[in-house]
Design brief:
The structure holds two protein chains of two kinds.
Chain A (H helix, E strand, L loop, with lengths): L1 H16 L1 H21 L7 E7 L4 H12 L3 E7 L2 H9 L5 E5 L3 H6 L8 E4 L4 H26 L25 H32 L1 H6 L5 H30 L8 H25 L3 H17 L12 H8 L2 H15 L3 H25 L5
Parallel strand pairs in A: 1-2, 1-3
Antiparallel strand pairs in A: 3-4
Helix pairs in contact in A: 1-9, 2-7, 2-9, 7-9, 7-10, 7-11, 7-13, 9-10, 10-11, 10-13, 10-14, 13-14
Chain B lengths: L4 E12 L2 E12 L3 E6 L5 H8 L7 E6 L2 E2 L4 H7 E4 L11 H11 L4 H15 L14 H12 L6 E5 L7 H16 L3 E5 L3 H6 L2 E6 L2 E6 L1 H7 L5 H9 L7
Parallel strand pairs in B: 3-8, 3-9, 6-7, 7-8
Antiparallel strand pairs in B: 1-2, 1-4, 4-5, 9-10
Helix pairs in contact in B: 3-4, 5-6
Classes of the chains: A alpha/beta, B alpha/beta.
């Protein structure tokens, strides 16, 4: 234990003497949490729309202004022919083409006549295309209903029974995207900071050669690993706390659940992430190797973590992978506690899994760290 | 014979695949002795030394260091030895004082011991003014002297020095050897590798390795006589000329 004290003192001195690390620890969470949620938004806006209006009637004008007024579209072309408009798609200046046929107005007004509009979608950017297509569809549907209201005298009771769906969003009532993404980004940040710092640290000592001087001392392996684990655990907790403060004061996100639950989970979770970093570092001889390996796993963890895409819609094999992905549990717990107000009992299974990971990874790191080779 | 041997080495061998870095070396080193371990680059000196320090596991052969076995008791060995590697390996981003404190603490010295030893050490090295400077800012000669002092801080039975004076100026080298003699006088056995033949003359006994084998082992005087050489330089030349390995 005495030895541990000396190790910790040394690590903290080295960390706080390294200006770039200190800067990263404090600025990274601030910058990322302030910039990322503003830029990375799921809502699709600025869809470039080109319209080919063969009718040029008051009705077609009405439709066009309704579309533009929705705010989702940007009219980038008003073309005479479909061919011309298609040129815009080819040169990537349009995402959608709406073709309004001749006699659009006349056919609309004539009863019993179905009118067809043609929508062409540029599917290179999948999300933009499909969302854009459906936005346009619903606007046209709305327009259609408006016209019917005007032209057909509404009977006392609607002839066509309709089911209208009214949704109420629990836990994030106005579907504020930031409330959803900020805890997720914070989860990833803490993971990255902890994982990379710990992975690079021992490898750095290997590169400089100071590890030899350590290996020739009677220091116990688990004490050495603990001496590396604890400082980064503290640092990652600081990053997390800064992140929570940013979430609170910039986005007004106040955890619904208790902070104690959150920190209890984070404490165990960080042991797993740091253990993983340390394990990687015991396998690598250079920082470059460690960096690449960490990068590979971090990408997997993050993409399969359920932040950007829902785990429920992943194929079964991917779901299996997410079970051994610590980031998945972190993101879930963050959302559960911050948005839903889950109690410690609710996240207990998550804590259990992550604790098991921490145990396995750290024991493995201790075993794999060889003082004699 | 009264057993005052602190290093007993019998047919110690290290193989890396087909390459035999250290080939069946057999020798003893006695308490308080300054044992010179010579050889051209690539002769297998560092490999042998790493085995003796418990940093590397031997492929075959036997060896005990301070009575402890190199296969099974590496951690006990580590309590009883000091090691100064070829590559400077104190922490450059810690100060002189912090390095001393850290290694003292790792070897289990008490706070009181660390305090007095730090003061003594700084005084002997004449580095009182540099105590709170980062090690990175020190000139190489000072670093090496500090490194040696840290290696013997916990009063080990044996200290292993791997080319401790490489790249150091002659005056500092002289001072360095004074420190080695002081350590030997206080009962610490010194196991040292070097490329400087004048330094070899300072050793009580020297061995010369060629291509992984220990070719000769004797006092400098006896070696010069048996090779009809005037200096250790000549002895070394005659032996190392036949070497096939090198860098």
């Amino acid at each position: 234990m005495r030895t541990l004290r000396f190790l910790l003192r040394k690590e903290f001195r080295q960390i706080f003497r390294d200006k770039s690390i200190v800067a990263m620890i404090f600025f990274m969470p601030m910058v990322q949490l302030i910039l990322m949620p503003l830029a990375a938004d799921y809502e699709v806006r600025n869809i470039n729309l080109s319209i080919v209006d063969h009718d040029k009637s008051p009705y077609s004008q009405k439709l066009i202004s309704k579309i533009v007024a929705s705010g989702y579209f940007r009219l980038t072309g008003y073309n005479a022919s479909f061919k011309e408009a298609f040129g815009l798609i080819e040169s990537d200046r349009a995402d959608l083409i709406l073709e309004i046929p001749h006699d659009f107005e006349r056919n609309l007004i004539r009863e019993d006549h179905h009118e067809k509009l043609f929508v062409a979608v540029n599917a290179i950017n999948g999300t933009k295309a499909s969302l854009g297509g459906s936005y346009l569809g619903s606007i046209i549907g709305d327009f259609n209903a408006d016209i019917r209201m005007q032209l057909v005298t509404p009977p006392r009771f609607s002839q066509f029974p309709m089911i209208e769906v009214v949704a109420s969003n629990w836990f994030n009532p106005v579907l504020n995207y930031k409330v959803f993404i900020v805890p997720g980004i914070l989860a990833i940040l803490v993971t990255m900071v902890g994982g990379f710092l710990s992975a690079l640290n021992i490898v750095r000592e290997k590169e400089i050669g100071t590890i030899e001087q350590i290996n020739v001392t009677p220091i116990q392996k688990h004490i050495f690993i603990l001496g590396k684990l604890i400082p980064f655990w503290v640092l990652a907790n600081i990053v997390f706390t800064i992140g929570l403060l940013v979430a609170r004061f910039v986005y007004g996100i106040v955890p619904v659940g208790s902070l104690l639950t959150l920190y209890a989970f984070i404490s165990v979770y960080l042991l797993a992430v740091l253990g993983f970093g340390l394990l990687v570092s015991t396998f690598c001889d250079t920082q470059q190797q460690a960096m690449f390996i960490m990068f590979f796993f971090m990408m997997l963890f993050i993409l399969l973590g359920g932040l950007f895409t829902s785990i429920d819609s992943m194929p079964d094999w991917a779901k299996v992978i997410t079970r051994v992905n610590p980031v998945r549990y972190m993101i879930e717990v963050m959302r559960m506690v911050i948005l839903k107000g889950s109690s410690f009992k609710d996240v207990l299974p998550h804590v259990g899994v992550v604790a098991l990971m921490a145990l396995v990874l750290n024991s493995w790191a201790v075993l794999n760290y060889k003082k004699t080779n | 014979m009264q057993d005052d041997r602190v290093i007993v080495c019998e047919k110690l061998t290290k193989r890396f695949g087909d390459f035999i870095a250290t080939n069946e070396i057999t020798f003893d080193v006695h308490k308080g002795e300054i044992f010179g371990f010579l050889g051209a680059n690539g002769a297998g000196k560092t490999t042998a030394m790493r085995m003796l320090c418990g940093l590397s596991s031997p492929s075959s052969g036997k060896a005990t260091i301070a009575g402890y076995d190199v296969y099974t008791q590496t951690e006990q060995i580590k309590k009883n030895i000091g090691y100064m590697s070829q590559k400077f390996s104190l922490y450059e981003n810690l100060t002189v004082r912090e390095n001393i404190e850290f290694f003292g603490g790792i070897y289990g010295l008490s706070d009181e011991q660390i305090r007095t030893k730090t003061a003594q050490l700084l005084q002997r090295l004449g580095m009182q003014n540099e105590a709170n400077k980062l090690v990175a800012s020190l000139p190489l000669g000072w670093k090496q002297k500090l490194s040696f002092s840290v290696a013997v801080l916990h009063e080990p039975k044996i200290v292993f020095l791997d080319e401790p004076t490489g790249g150091v100026d002659p005056v500092t080298r002289r001072q360095f050897w004074d420190m080695i003699y002081e350590a030997a006088d206080s009962g610490i056995t010194v196991f040292v590798t070097t490329h400087y033949m004048d330094e070899a003359e300072y050793c009580h006994r020297i061995s010369i390795m060629v291509d992984g084998k220990m070719e000769v082992l004797d006092t400098p005087t006896n070696l010069k006589n048996s090779f009809h050489a005037r200096s250790m330089d000549e002895v070394f030349y005659q032996l190392a000329r036949g070497a096939k390995r090198g860098d």
